[in-house]
């Protein structure tokens, strides 16, 4: 650490489970705020060691072979963050502190370093250290179900919310906490688009409300329109080549909806007061909407050269 600088007035903290989650769920939001001068901090809770490998030449990195996928995914995350313009990204407790738990119910859930097994207060303590340093006004993570039920996503939610409570006790909690979400209306449009597709992520689903991550439109709090950043999000997705093959439905639907799909992301508000919005449900168009204490007097001093 070679000096001290003052962080920008607006500071956003995102807590994700694995490398690639940040790009899929919040990539355009991250790129938007980075491009507009906010300080964007990404905390990733595991290295994603149990992920699938869609690059045949790298198959030997798998957990049941060389078990080196996690290290490889650090480089993928570096490239994704560079595409998004994010320079401050960290692993919770340091790289390798917690291991990818795999899907719910698998033996990998019981690994001694599995994030699913992490002591909640210890893990939240690591995140609290970041909150103390950065003093974000806004934090983003998943809902109680981890958006779709992955144990590491659920644990990331628990850790983030526990860290929020610990920060609140110190008087330094973020003013607002958002959870990633997908409106029912948007999912319905996606289902209609994929009816004739051979790569249909909604196959077998007849009613969009059956999807565990479908959120009624009236419960959405914010719609971040970052369509001008959809190319950055797509570049970040391509950086995660081991996890997202070129034939992924993500690219298929992007080809149909373009910037609307890649560039617009939605959130529910879990903590704090909703700011001014628009439309039939009063959706905010800025995660910092309604926050009054944005100014240099509130910005923390932090070590220069943040990674």
From TrEMBL:
It catalyses: 1D-myo-inositol 2-acetamido-2-deoxy-alpha-D-glucopyranoside + H2O = 1D-myo-inositol 2-amino-2-deoxy-alpha-D-glucopyranoside + acetate. It comes from the Bacteria. Signal peptide: none annotated. Its cofactor is Zn(2+). Transmembrane segments: none annotated. It holds the Pfam family PIG-L. It comes from Micromonospora globbae. One of its GO terms (biological process) is mycothiol biosynthetic process. The gene is mshB. Its EC number is 3.5.1.103. This is 1D-myo-inositol 2-acetamido-2-deoxy-alpha-D-glucopyranoside deacetylase.
